[in-house]
Each structure stands twice: as C-alpha cells, then as structure tokens.
Amino acid sequence: MFVNAAIAATAQREFRAGAAAQRLSLGFLHEYVLGNYRDLYAATLALDVNDLNAAMVVTNLLRTAREASDEQRAVEGRLIAARLRSLPPHRVYGVLRELRRLGINNRRTRVIVRDWVAARPDPAFDAIKYRRSLSVAARHAHLPLPGEVGTVLFDWRRPKRYETPILEAWRRAHYEQQALYELPYTVAEGLAAQHGIDRARFLSGIAPKLTDGERLRLQGSAARHRVEAVAMDLAAAPLTRLAIYALSLPRPERARRRDELTGALQAAARRAARRQAGTWGRVVAVLDDSYSAAGSGVKRRRPLAVALATYYLLEALAADFTGLWLHHRGDPLLVHPIGATGLGVRIVDALALRPDRLVIVSDGWDNDPPWQAAEVLRVWRTRLDPHQATSVVHLNPVYDADTFDVRRLAASVATVGVRDAEDAAALVELARFATGSAGFDELRRHLADRVERFLNTEEAVS
Amino acid sequence: MTAVTDGIDLTGLTAGPAQTWGAIRLVPLLRPIPITELRLHARLYDPDEPSIVHTGPRTAYLSYIPHAFVATWTTDTTPVAAFGTQLRGSADTRAPAGIRLASRRRMTRREDRQRLRFLPLHLAMEGYLALQFGGPPIAWQEWTRHAVTRGLSPRVEASYTGAAIAGLDDALRVFEIHPDQCGMVLYVADALAAAFVVPHPDDYRALHPTLLQDFYGELLFHYTHLYPAVPDFTPRLDDTVITSVADLRAQLAQVAADWTAFHALMADGLLAAGRLTVTPVQRMGRFTLGPVPARLQPRSRKPHRRNHHRRGRPAGLPQNVPALGRPDPPGTLAVPTRRHRLGPRRHRHSTRHRPGRTGPTSRPRRLRPPAPPRHHRCPPHARPKTAQPSIESGAHEVNLPGSCRDFPACVGFGGCLDRRRRSAEERQGPLATRQPGGGHIGFLVARSRGRPA
C-alpha cells in the first residue's frame, strides 16, 4: 500500500538498505502510483504522509500536470496549496528549488508559488533565513517582492542601511558581534564562526532565538558547554523527538534522570493521545528492541525510539497496558538494541494475556526463527481466536526497498507504516485497509471523505 | 605428536536459527554458560604492512606484495621493502622510500606466562598445507629421488578474503548477534564456508567482523554471484493439535529443538565428525591450541569427491579448539616443527611406517612426480580465526618453494614469484583483475638454506 511507504519512507539509509536503494525504490513507487492511480496519488496529500513524500507528491503532480484533466487539476491545485501551507517552510523551499531544477515553469505553478510566498507571515525573515531558496524561487516564478526584501536578495551591496529591523540586523551582523544575536540561529551560527565567537558564549547569547526543534537538538551541546540558557521544559517536545533524545543519552545518565525523562515522555504521550486517553481497553504491545532497531548512521535508533514512544502513547491510551520488549526487562527507558528478533515467542506471551488489542512495533525481520510470528498469528486466528476478539496491528517504522512497502509480518495481520508515534492512534484506525479486507471502492470513498475534511479545515484556517 | 581422536566435543554449544542475507546463511552457535577462564582478543596489525614470520632457525616466511623487491635493511634493524624503482642521486644518502616489514617471531608465541599470541590464519593454512601438499602415501622411489635432487614442485593456492565475497560484508553487518552467542557457522549458497567458535560472548562480539578477513575459496566467491538468494527455512506449526496457548508454546519449543538437530545435519557432519588427526601446538593450562583437525581419509579422493570437497565441505575441518571449551580437546592438528621438509618427511614416513602398503608402481592419480611445475588447485577451506591476519587483500597466493627453495627468505624470489603469478592469472582469468586495486598478495614459504638430507 502506497500510503504505508509514504508514511514510513524517508529515502535515507536504513539498517538493511542504503540511501541509494531507498531513493530508487521510493522514486519508482511514486512514478507507478502517479501513472496508474493519479486520483489516489493526489489524495495522499490529505493523509498523514511524511514531509518528504508530500514534497515529492507535490513536485510530481506539478511536473505531470499536462496529463491531468481540468477537474483533476482543480482538485490537485487546492490539495497542493493546502498541503504546502502545512509543510515546514524549508521543505517547501526544497520543492521550489526542485521545480526550478526540473524547469517546470507555467502560469499555474507560478501562481501556486506566488500564493504560498504571499501567505508567509514575514517575507523579510524568510529573506534572511531562507535567503538562497527565496531568491531562487523569486527568480524562477517572477515573484514581486515587497520593499527591501528584493533589495536584500538581489542588490544587497548598495544600501547603507535598511529600514526593516531584521534586515538591518543581518547587515550589521557582518561587522558587529552583538547584532548577530538578533538573527535566526542557523544564520547566526555561520556568522559566529566567521567572527570566531566561542561556542559557549554564542549558545548563551542565541538561546532566546532558538526554535523548539533547535533547542531540543542542542541539549547535548549545551550540557557539554555548560550553557544554562538553552535548557528547556522537555515535556513540551513532541513525543518521538523526545524518545530519540532520551535514547541518545548514555544509560547511566538515563537512569540518573529517570524521573524527569519519564515524566516528560508521559506528558508528551498524554498530549498526543488527547481525548482518546484511556479509551482503548486492555492493550498489550510487543516492542522490537533487536539489534536492527539501532537504525542507521543517519537515523540513529529511530525504530527503537518509535517503539519507546509507542510504549508511552499506548500507556496513555489504554486503560490497562502491558508492554513486552523482546529482550529488555524492567524500566523501558533503559532499553538498548541488542540480539535477534524472536517475535513469535513474545507474541504468544502477549496473546496469553487475552488483550483487546495487540500492537506490534517491529521492522518485520522476524528471524529467530524466521517467520515464526506469521505462524503464531495464523494459528491464533484459525484455532484460538476465530471470532477476532483480539485485534492485532503491526506498526512498522522501516520502509523495505525491495518490496516497495513496509515489511509485513503475516498476511492476516494489518501492517501500517509509522513515522512518528504520535500518529499511531490514527494509523491503527487506518489499518483495516491494510489487510485488504476493505474493498477498493470503500477505500476511494474513505479517501474522498478525508480529502474533503482536509480541504475544509485547511481552507477554514487560511 | 599427531593423534587420532573421535571427533570434536561441542558440549555446551547449540545452534540457533539461521539468518540469511542473499546467498549467505549465518547460523549462530549459542553457549548459555560461557567459558570465562580463556579469553581471546584481536591484536590488530596494520593490514598494509607485510609481515615476516620466523618459524624456526633459518626458516621464515613472508607475506609479500608482489611488485616490491626486498632491497635493504634500515639502520634501526627493521626490514623495509623498496617501493618500486627509484631514481636517486649518487650523493643521496637517505634511505629509499619503502614499506616497513614487521617481523613476528613464530606463529604461536607465548608472550607471558598466561598469554599466547598466535596467527590463526597462518596456523590454519599451515595445517592445510601439511594435509594437502605432502608426498604420496606410498613408497615411490622415483618421486623420492626427484624430490631430493630437484626439490618439490612449486604449487600455488589462491584464496579470497571475505571482503571479496559478494554480500558477506552486508550479511555480517546486518546479522543480529544473540546475547549469548559464542560462535558462527557460515554457509555460502548453502555450502559450508566457515565455522568459528570462541569461549565468551564478549569475545565473539569483538571478533565477529574478523570473519570478513578470513580465507575463503574461489568457488565460494563464484557461488555468491551464481546464487542470488538462499531460502529461509520456515517452521510450520501443526495447527490441528493446538487447542490452547500451552499447546502453542509446546509447538514453539519443539520448533526450537528441531533447529539444533537440523543444523547438525546441514553442517555435513562437521559437528559430529568422526576420526580426526590432531597435533597440539601449544598448551595453555587445560586448553590446547591446535588448528585444523583433518579427517583421515582425504588422500585418495576420487575426482567427484574432490570436486565436492572444493565447495568448502570440510576435509580439513577448521575449528578453533581452545574455544571448544574442554580440557585438551581432541580437535587439534599440528604444525609440524619442521614444516618445510614435507616432501622428504613424507618419504621417510612412507618407507618406515607404511612399507609396502601399495606397490611403488601404482601411482595415485593426483600425486605425480613434480618434474614439470604444476599448479594443483586445492579446495577452499573454512577456518576459524581469532586475531588479525597480517595479510589483507583481494586474493592470496601461497607458494611452496620448490626450485627456488634455496633463496634466503627475503631476497631474490621476484622472478619465481612473477612466473607463478602469471600462471595464477592464467588460471584465474579475469578474476584477478576484478579485485579492487588488483590486490594480489603473494605469501611465500621460503626456507633460507639447507636441502632435505
């Protein structure tokens, strides 16, 4: 199912496949779905696909607009505009650069770019933070830029001073160290290196300007340089990000800060669960902490972090929750990726508890022994639970390049791709399409419904 | 010194479920109770650094980069190989640019009261050579005379490092090491390629990547290209007898037990091998170091049997005996003290110990007088290792010096080596060029002086 891939795949190196294989596989999958099911392809923009795939879908739709009918183009245009508004700006600027690289420049594309840039809250800020990207987009789409923004992009040597504060700060920051702390972190970092500013001093100065993501990312760096100002309330961070951060700490430190980290993870999970908290009944999770959960150099411990975040999310969602790791026992915060993937035995342990829901978080490489989980689940379905009292869902955070999908555990069990554990609740609902039990028409209806809702909410916001 | 025993004791080791990657099948060997008195660790030698190993008085061998000539000895008494031809002014007193050669004393060396350093690949190769390159097992006067007057024929053995086997690096990288894993049996396209056992799981985790630096046979190299993937063996549960979770658990336990039995079968009798010749090399407390036990029968193999053998089925069973975890385990084989007198020694053996077993005229098909230099192809072999070999390249050649045996260890076999390289390349065809960097490292067994009496 394309949506699985579009949620889980990031075209980065995974534990078992290199970046090139992932990129090639994902590129082909996009081409295939675009060529054969254009409506569904466009409709995925309304789903929770990840940013990379949303950007790819937008680019591909604009690239092949000639092949679409007028009605299709109208819907696609609205979907693209709505999705671009919800994407982070650097992703959108990536799309705009890609459009230029591919030489896609028609009236419709120019209007889409113009509308998006016009809707940005502060063009002067973009002109500083996304300087190259904005200038590329402006040149490519012939954008009218307000006031000094055009000057700072294309004629920045001439003016002696700017009226706009941030532009003036950017000009002064080239000569004056103090002005640098009024700029966004990513811009200031390069200028600080030019000025030779000490890292600790720079971090304490720039701390008020940090975004939430940057602040979380800099926690380790700040602790190393003993910068107090970067400290943050961890509970405000998104659940999966927080799990990644927690797993990046060495185990002794995790044990030392157990209360703080556990509290933050639980708070983030409650926030992600929202109104559904405590409504799921008896839930058992089988969580994969085998060596392959270590991910790759570019996605360090990502599968394990997703499993850890799911643990806390399900704890918040369920009335009665048990989490079973494959190898780890005790405090889930100290989990460590090691050993083989023996899912079969653990699934039996989980099913013996007779839960309402069984959630399996694993990359699907069941190898101890191979495919035993599939056998266990088959026997469970046919012999021990023919009335399907227990619903089983497999969440897979790893895209398998060879099969163009996330790796499945068993034919009878729904497998859905997962990127962030926060989406797990919605994905479990979506899982009924993943088994193939729901028909194609039903899927189309469901997607049309989702598209309608998505467009209504997005257009109401804007 | 050499003894015959009844197989290898594998007490405490069980096989786990295999993990496959492409044509590679990796079977973990688990040891619930590790051996703690004996620990192994790798000592890393620079892989680009050729090494000389002194094996006895006036005897040494050298792992050697073919296009270098051993030219000079530095003033600080470490040997160097000149790196290609260099133009030098007559007044230039600096030493020519060269590669440092590290010298190792003996293949096994007791470095401390309770520490032993050994070169596992070399030990294994040594045992293998002793097994495969001996003279005929019969009294055969012509052969003897020829061997005494003209020397043994030079022979070439080619093997590949694990890095050259397609997919092995990925297979080892993605292999999920069990927490109690002490060993590994490696199959390439379901042909046995290596077995590797160490005493402790921590040692195994440290030494796991060294499987990539081992010797592997040429056929295994081809197999990875010919066979894209081996299938997983999927256990099938019998759902007709399952009525409860307890039944399901019983079935899973049955499956786990089946795996162990299945792997004993797959290893082609390796784990339950019959009679083995062993010669201990070093004794370490209650452990004995001795490489490469060998089955007794491989001498008169039929052609098809030999072919079979090439696929890596063990004739010389490589097992790291100290790792097997019992006092003085039987699976050991010798590095004979006077290794390079193989020909004559065989001769003496045959006349003294086995007189008249076969008539002197009945010549076995494979072993002929060495007069025209021949290149016997030899089976790849599996082998355990515990330390870094001093050789690392796409392919290795092992040359037993025949006619050039009188050259001192380090100097002067360039010509001979060239000739052998040529013939090796003729045999191997494009393979040699396929190696990254054309990395052929010759590794030559040379005796400095003295003919066999």
TrEMBL record, chain A:
This is TROVE domain-containing protein.
UniProtKB/TrEMBL annotation, chain B:
This is ARG and Rhodanese-Phosphatase-superfamily-associated domain-containing protein. Residues 289-397, 426-453 are annotated as: Disordered. InterPro entries: ARPP-2. Coiled coil: none annotated. Pfam families: ARPP-2. Residues 298-313, 337-356, 363-384 have a biased composition (Basic residues). Residues 8-285 form the ARG and Rhodanese-Phosphatase-superfamily-associated domain. It comes from the Bacteria.
